[in-house]
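Exercise 7.
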Amino acid sequence: MNQGHRRNRKRRNAIVLVAGLAAGGVGLGLVTMQANATDTPRATTRAASPISCPSVADRLPDVPRQARAEVDRNLRLLQSQITEAGDRLAATRGQGGADFVRNAVLGPLKDKRTATIDRIAIAISRAGAPRPQGLSSLAACTQAGAGQGQQGQGASPSPAGNGPVPEDFVDITEVAPNVPARPRNGRNASKGAFKTRCGVNAEGRHNSDNVIVAPGVGNGAHHTHDYVGAIGVDAFTTDDTLAAARTTCTNGDRSTYYWPVLRDRRGAEEADAGKPGGGAEGNVGKILTPTSASLTFVGNPTTKVVAMPRFLRIITGDAKANANGGANANAAWSCTGFENRVQLKDKYPICPAGSELVRTERFQSCWDGRNTDSADHRSHVAFADARGRCPAGFKAVPQLVQRLTYSGLAGSTAFAVDSFPESLHKPVTDHGDFINAMPERLMKQAVRCINSGRSCG
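Solution. The predicted structure, written as tokens, is:
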């Protein structure tokens, strides 16, 4: 780009201070926009973004007062998404083939914007105003100058090399014990456990959708998931199709349990080596089938549990924890023989000979008593505190504890969990997803078992 173009672009950029529009307007604070109706974040502190997206703020109607906070938060999120995509574009310059930018940058950005824009529309309609129409057409973005030969960014054969790095691994035998003591059981504790046996996905049921976070969006996760439980789950699954699905679980549990696959990166490639969700987005290597997948529901140390509502959705951990600050991170990595002493959140363990790699996810166990989902997919559930108490207004429900083991990785640092392209396969991004579709009879059985202190299933 020549100097004249840079000067003209700077002249077109404007900082718009939106501070208390007319009654019912959006109180945004400081919003950065371009006069050509695109959202360009951080214009006051960095060069113009290489990503150009239509402005959503300019297309909104008057926003009801009750929806302003949620709308403001999501408008800010739209800006940060463009910034992150621009950073990703710069960091991967020269990687991939002709489709790399579309698959690894613009495609994920569009999916994120689609979900965020939908949350804005939902917030407005929940406040009693008509749902805005036509906003979904604003999700797609373009690469500035893509028509001038920049789309391919070179012809490197693979987008690999985007993590993990050696610093992401640690010899577990050299880690000091770090597992805190469990809270002591009170007089009203629910001390039982209920196991649902659903296999290890030996059949290789995989896709890169996420029906909780991105319903109706193919490749909404941009990384590949293992699935057990209900068969055929993808982005287009509904409560009705889930309730009617066949299942891999031996007790008739039609819930879906899914998690990002783990890959062995020592040279062998998977069939998705050049496809979205796989190698096209930096997720390379052979997908490993767990040697065991334990799904156990446990109780609460202070109170009896109540039944989960059918179709309750829970995500635990944060697929973007390295970028989001880690507040929702819930990864727990260890090795067999070390689990009671060492659990790692932000490191992969190097396991000794004879030991298997272990991934454990403890899901939220407190429910707000009303909702099966929420706009951020988190607010309707919560973790109990260090003493096992749920927040005020929340009820204790059976806690899903998911434990996966993998063999053949002793001494290895050549493995990684699948991730969004920008998440660099960091161990802290490990996460799990669950939709309860147990028949009510089976859920009642689980609750009775847990509250009576028995081990069932």
